Amino acid sequence: MAAKSDRAAILSRLRMEIEDGHAIYDALCGSGITAKMAARGGASMVTTHSLAYFRMQGLSSMAGYLPICDANALTLELGERALINVVHECPLIAGLLCVDPTRDMRRFLEKIAAAGYDGVMNCPTVALIDGKFRSDLEETGMGFAREVAVLAMASGMGLFTKAFCTSVDEAVAMAEAGVDNIIIHFGNSSGGTIGSKTVLDRNAALGRSATILDALSTNFSNRLVTCHGGAIETSIDFEQFLQAEPRLHGYVGGSSAERFPIEKSVVEATRQFRSIKLPKTK
Q: Which of 120, 137, 150, 170 is the least buried, fewest Cβ under 10 Å from its Cβ?
């Protein structure tokens, strides 16, 4: 199997959505059933990665940043065994640990495309790591520049590319590398049973968006720019955010795409069944 849609076709589809006045909605899904239903619901694209997998095991998606699995092998297997055969309505994107030092990433990108993925992104990303650990990664060749290089390679192979970015420097570097979709990341999501208690507030998120959008406006105005995480938990939250920053093209949902709906609907369905009383037989 090869990628269903090439880069040009995906970009044409997304730009048509924008021209029709619809915000892009990218659903980050960690299971076949959530991916299948998101695609049927009209998601612009579905994306999977190790963080989404752990989220769908009832754990924090931040488990994807611990050394407990081979993130790239997991994403490949998720696609081959659970998602590629059920997501037909929209492109399917693979989130990769681009800084993986154990792989020839060009060969792995070819394997990802051959499996049926239509594009790639940088998730897990070192953009969410800071402090001494981040500087050690950068100094030893496993920093953000490596993510930029791998996504540039993927773009050159005709794959659709998108990138989590938390700063102007990161966003501009990805845009210069030819990445199609810059995703402004606001950090881990709040809400639900395992959301972060401390997240980037709305004003700080708007400020981050404005500075990145300003920086891209001169030379990279053709890039798609979406956002993810933080205190945006619902479609209403994003609609209000979009009113304040109308230059954004859409939203990337993780917990809002699958964890929140499941936490509510499964609990409610269980309670409804448990409310049934056995009929008296005498």
A: 137
Give yes or no for a contact between 36 and 86, defined as CB atoms under 8 angstroms apart. Answer: yes
Lowest mean pLDDT among 16-20, 123-127, 163-167, 232-236: 232-236
How many residues can be counted in the chain? 282
d(CA 32, CA 45): 14
> What is residue 1's predicted lDDT score, i.e. its pLDDT?
43
DSSP 102-163: TS-HHHHHHHHHHHT--EEEE-S-GGG--HHHHHHHHHTT-SHHHHHHHHHHHHHTT-EEEE
Closest to 96 (Cα-Cα) out of 59, 117, 56, 125: 125
Tell which residue, 184, 134, 181, 132, has the closest CA to residue 155: 181
CB-based burial, 94-115: b 16+ in 10 Å, e otherwise: bbbbbbbeebebeebbeebbeb
- 30-60 pLDDT, tens digit each: 999 999 999 999 999 999 999 999 999 999 9
Query: Which has the closest alpha carbon to 78: 36, 24, 43?
Result: 36
Q: pLDDT over 70 for what percent of the chain?
A: 99
**What is the predicted pLDDT for the residue at 3?**
56
Task: Give residue 281's pLDDT band: very low, low, confident or very high (50, 70, 90).
Answer: confident
Q: How does strand 119-122 pair with strand 160-165?
A: parallel
- The residue written with tokens 């693979």 in the block is 94
**Could you please report the per-residue DSSP string of 70-82?**
-HHHHHHHHIIII
